[in-house]
Every structure is written in C-alpha cells, then in structure tokens.
Amino acid sequence: MLEIESINIGELDSKDYKFSAGENTAEEKAILTHYLHNFRNGVAKHYEEKALLIIENYVNYKKMSSVKITKKLALKKLLSEVEDVPFNTPKNYSFKFIDLFAGIGGFRIAMQNAGGRCVYTSEWNKDAQITYKENFGEVPFGDISQENIKNYIPDNFDILCAGFPCQAFSIAGHQKGFSDTRGTLFFDIEKVVEKHRPKVVFLENVKNLVSHDNGKTFRVICEVLEEKLNYKVFTKVLNSMTHGNVPQNRERIFIVAFDPEQVPNFADFNFPEEIPLTHTIHDFLEEGKQDEKYYYKETHQYYPELEKTMTKKDTVYQWRRVYVRENKSNVCPTLTANMGAGGHNVPLIKDDFGIRKLTPKECFAFQGYPMNKYILPKIADSKLYMQAGNSVTTTLVERISHSIIRVL
C-alpha cells in the first residue's frame, strides 16, 4: 500500500525526476493532467501521445527508487488523484469550453454548473496554478502568448472563456483597416479565435476598459471581433450585487460574441436581467473569533482612526491609505488585487472581538465561490487576496453562461 500511496503527480517536481518528453516539468504536469481529466472522452486523444510517454518515464523513475509499478497501476492511481477533487467535470455535458487566463477557476465553476466540460486551461501565475490544481485536479498550461502553449488547444470546442488583463493598444499599426493588437494579450485571444472558430467568445474585464485610452482600446476589441473575425458582439457592464446576488459592489464589462455561421439565432441572446439582492454580508462572513493576525491591535498607528470611524457591525469598511471609508449600501466594496499588499484598499469589518480585515476565505466567498468545498491551499495570504481580487464573481458569470447556452 505504501508503494501505491507514493504515486502522485507532485513527484514530477522532484529534483531526481528526469523528464523525457522534451517539455519542462510544469508543461509535463499540464499535459498529463489534461490527458487524465479527459480520459473518459475523445479529447484525451489530443494529449495522449505525450501523456503516455510521461507516464512511461514516471514508471521508470519509480523503478529506479525500487518501487515496482506497472503503467496500468500508475494510470489508475494518477486518474483517481485528478478525479478526487471538489469540482470534477460533470460526466454529462452539453458543450465544451476552454479557460484562458483562468486564474483560480471562476469561469470554470460557472461553466461547469451550466453543463460544460473544460478541455483546455491556461494560466501563467504559479500560485494561481496551485489553487486551480487543488480544486479542479488540473494543472493549467502556462503563458498563452507562447506558440507551443497555444498548440495544445484541442481543435473542437464551443466556447472560449477569458478574463484577460487590460493593456493599452498601439493604434499606430493599421493593417487592412484594423487596429494593430500585436503586443497585447488580446492579440493571443484573437489568434486562438481565428484558428479555432469557437461558436462563442466570452470575455470579462474591468469596467474601465470601456473608457481606457479614450475608448480606443475597447473599440479595437469590438472592431477586431466584428469586422476582422466576423462575430456578432454583445457588451454590457454588470454589477455583482445587482446581477449575481452577491453583496459586493463590483462592476465589470462582459463581452459575448457569436459566430453567426454556427449560431444563426445569435440575436436571441440577452444579458441576464437585474435580480433582487437577497444575501447580506453576514451570509459571507465567518462566525466567531478569527485568527489573531487579522485583527488590528490597539497599538497600531491607525487604530484610533479605525475605532472612531468603524462603529457598525453591518457594513464592510475600506482602508484608503490614510482614512476609512464606509460602504453605505451595506455590501462589500470592490475586492482588488492589491488588497493584501501594503494595507491599501483592505476591506475591514467590526465584529464582537475587534476590528479586523476580511479573511481570504471571506474574500473568496464574496466572489461567489462555494466555500463549503472550495479549497484554499497553504500559500501566503497576500497571494490568496490577490487571487480573490483578480477573480470573476462566479454566480454572475454563471447567469450569463446560462443565457449563452439557451441560445446555443
């Protein structure tokens, strides 16, 4: 039993492990977990050749350690590791999607809840990859701007999902009337769409994308999707608290684009309507005393200011460099990627035990993650805060996903 227990994907990180398939270890783990994750459907064929080489090499590595295993036993054990996770892919699925700039899996949870199977994931941040692997059993491929990483994308999938970072476009280069997106991450999405022609492109970004560079950036994105790639584009700014039933004031721009050749009834698409906010912040806050490290001590230089301003237990406050701002609408202010660094933008609450920061678990909850089963790995709190701030609100993305699937 000890020998079988020692079989795990993490061993590919061992300094003694020598990989043979020509990739680095991170890429090998991505190939292997993508193969295992799609083992029971046809997509596995796409990853099979290299995955079987990796398994064979792993078996040889184990034999060097005097652990006698067969490829069949290794496959069985590795398969159980990938499938024994909180958010395994539904066996009965109605569409396939890929998850680019995947972060910690906000799009994936939403799309799986809507009946989808993820067939490819990409995320370059190593800490986000750890969180993703814990919850979905899959190691994302790395930097999507690299051609070899793009080449792992399977041919047939229905929806491309991407919560991509916003960058300025150089409008300097005009080619055949289209603004040049080279040098930006949207260009990589553009190339994937051009090659694979998914039925739907589903993008999310900060609200400021709409006004970024006097509206040029947003105009280029829509122009490329509509005029160059011939998709029909729908855009809307939606708020998590008005459209996701999550008490967080978070506005984001959503872009949904249909290929009219494959989806002739694209005009039936509508973004979801506003719904009542039935949850309060207390549905997302942990009960009882939290770890001491989250509480401000009375000796803290800002404690007098915090104590003077923070008088209510029914609101989430926000530390803004030198003052405290109360969120009047009794919801959580927008979670940001920098809330775990340097104290700026940190959401604060007053509970029965003092004044404290929101815990990482609470921040994930305010993004719609089901914290009864979502796993936070043992990495630095600052990394977890960043992951929560960079994520999408899963409940809102799920509502849009259902609207897309209705049209498909």
Keyphrases for this structure?
3 domains; 4-stranded antiparallel beta sheet; 408 residues; Rossmann fold; 34% helix; globular; 6-stranded mixed beta sheet; 12 strands; alpha/beta; 14 helices
Structure description:
This protein folds into 3 domains: 2-83, no CATH class; 95-277 and 391-407, Vaccinia Virus protein VP39 (Rossmann fold); 287-358, no CATH class. The protein is built from 14 helices and 12 strands. The protein has helices at 2-5, 25-37, 44-64, 71-83, 106-113, 126-136, 147-150, 185-196, 216-228, 240-243, 303-309, 360-365, 381-390, 394-407, and strands at residues 95-100, 116-121, 159-162, 174-175, 178-179, 200-206, 232-239, 251-258, 317-320, 323-326, 347-351, 354-357.
State the gist of this model.
The protein is an alpha/beta fold and 408 residues long. It contains 14 helices and twelve strands. The strands form three sheets. A six-stranded mixed sheet has the order 2-1-3-6-8-7. A four-stranded antiparallel sheet has the order 10-9-11-12, with helices on one face.
